[in-house]
Design a protein that fits this description.
alpha/beta
């Protein structure tokens, strides 16, 4: 089966090479870390590697944020066991290097034996931890064959991927058999994991790590923006985060209606993907709205009656603290939604669209708790204006969101208890 999978992956990679090349040329995507992806271990990893480590893989920014507390807890609990972290995306890599030592962070190799083996031979992990739904067959199989324990943490099976996984259950069964422990976000995720081939004995519910993310509002950008934003209560700040194509035009149109009632209002607009920063800037310019880009903004420049384009990575979560109202994107269009917990923990009134399958349980909790406003493209402007007019309702919405956020913490400690037996004393763990 693994030979067939590798041949299929190789064929698909060759077939898609023109697309990959185009992405590299047009957007610079995937160029960073190419040698690491192809199996060349960087010198910084060679110098710090020690057999018996823990290797964590987190795809991008969201997963890196989610596993950050777990990473620190593992370091504290097992000080003689080095923890390494791999990512797939450039933005995830940048954030991981900022948060952790760059000597412990690298790009995940492609899922071919010749790419993976140099890392596995060098690191010889006693425990491989994959965040959410990273089921890479060769990585799982080769790690297990080398003697590593394998765990999937914060595991979730989205509505979109579940039918596909279930269709190929016979193929996924042997792949999932290499996993020693599944720590699912919800009981529904656990049920789906078992249905696609995971062992029921190895699947537990431990909660969602994203509830354990602690974000500071004391970043330099937030401090500078506080001084640059209008100080009067009649000048709301609307933070629209993780927006995707098809959403920005709707949000800008709604903001134009807001400006009629609040002429000095400010919208902070943060597109999800860095390669779209330029296109979104052009869209704002075409709308007739004044705007400034974070990359060119001078902190002594006042902001009022326009758009602040957050064309940076890793700053959005803290910026939510400035919001009068927050909108979390990827949800007005069928993308699956993004993390509403980032603004919620700041006691901000949160709005999102109806397409939130990737965060279905969190959205369910917040909707049932009266801590979230779900809007459509048609109701967006009216709902936004209604919240801006009603301070009492807006503040109550934010306070309920913050309370629910705090109520559901604790996933990190539950995961630590489940992972502890997998880290052997032979590798120097206490």
């Amino acid at each position: 089966m693994y030979i067939l999978y590798t041949l299929t992956l190789a064929f698909a990679t060759l077939l898609s090479l023109p697309w990959w090349a185009l992405q590299m040329l047009r957007h610079g995507k995937y160029r960073a870390g190419l040698s690491e992806r192809l199996g060349l271990v960087p010198q910084r990893i060679k110098e710090t590697a020690r057999p018996g480590c823990v290797w964590i893989h987190a795809v991008s920014v969201g997963e890196v944020l989610a596993i950050s507390t777990l990473f620190r807890e593992l370091e504290a609990a097992f000080p003689r066991v080095p923890v390494f972290l791999s990512t797939t995306t450039l933005t995830g890599q940048q954030l991981a290097r900022e948060r952790f030592s760059s000597e412990r962070v690298f790009y995940l190799p492609l899922d071919f034996g010749f790419c993976l083996r140099p890392y596995l031979r060098l690191l010889r992990p006693q425990l491989l931890i994959l965040a959410e739904t990273e089921f890479w067959p060769n990585l799982l199989h080769l790690s297990k064959a080398q003697g590593a324990a394998v765990a999937i943490v914060n595991a979730r099976i989205s509505d979109r991927s579940f039918p596909r996984y279930r269709l190929f259950r016979r193929l996924f069964g042997p792949v999932l058999a290499d996993v020693d422990l599944f720590l699912a976000q919800t009981e529904e995720d656990r049920r789906r994991l078992v249905e696609i081939g995971a062992s029921a004995e190895n699947a537990q519910v431990s909660g969602n790590l994203k509830f354990d993310i602690r974000l500071s509002a004391n970043s330099p950008l937030v401090a500078d923006l506080r001084r640059g934003l209008p100080q009067d209560k009649g000048s709301p700040v609307i933070v629209c985060g993780s927006t995707t194509e098809g959403e920005e035009a709707l949000l800008l149109a709604a903001f134009q209606q807001v400006l009629r009632e609040h002429p000095s209002a400010v919208m902070v607009l943060a597109p999800r993907h860095p390669e779209r920063f330029g296109a979104v800037a052009n869209l704002i310019a075409g709308s007739g709205l004044s705007y400034v880009k974070r990359s060119t903004w001078k902190k002594d420049c006042r902001l009022a009656g326009g758009v602040f384009l957050l064309d940076s990575v890793g700053e959005l979560a803290a910026v939510y603290a400035l919001a009068t109202v927050a909108f979390v994107g990827g949800s007005l269009v069928p993308v699956g939604g993004h993390n509403i917990l980032e603004p919620a923990q700041h006691a901000v009134a949160v709005m999102t669209g109806p397409h939130t399958a990737n965060f279905r349980e969190i959205v369910r909790i917040f909707e049932q708790g009266g801590a979230l406003r779900v809007v459509t493209a048609e109701t967006l402007a009216a709902e936004l204006l209604q919240l801006l007019r009603d301070q009492q309702q807006r503040e109550a919405l934010g306070q309920r969101a913050q309370a629910l956020f705090r109520e559901h913490t604790g996933a990190t400690q539950r995961m630590m208890e489940a992972l502890r037996p997998l880290i052997t004393r032979a590798a120097g763990a206490p």
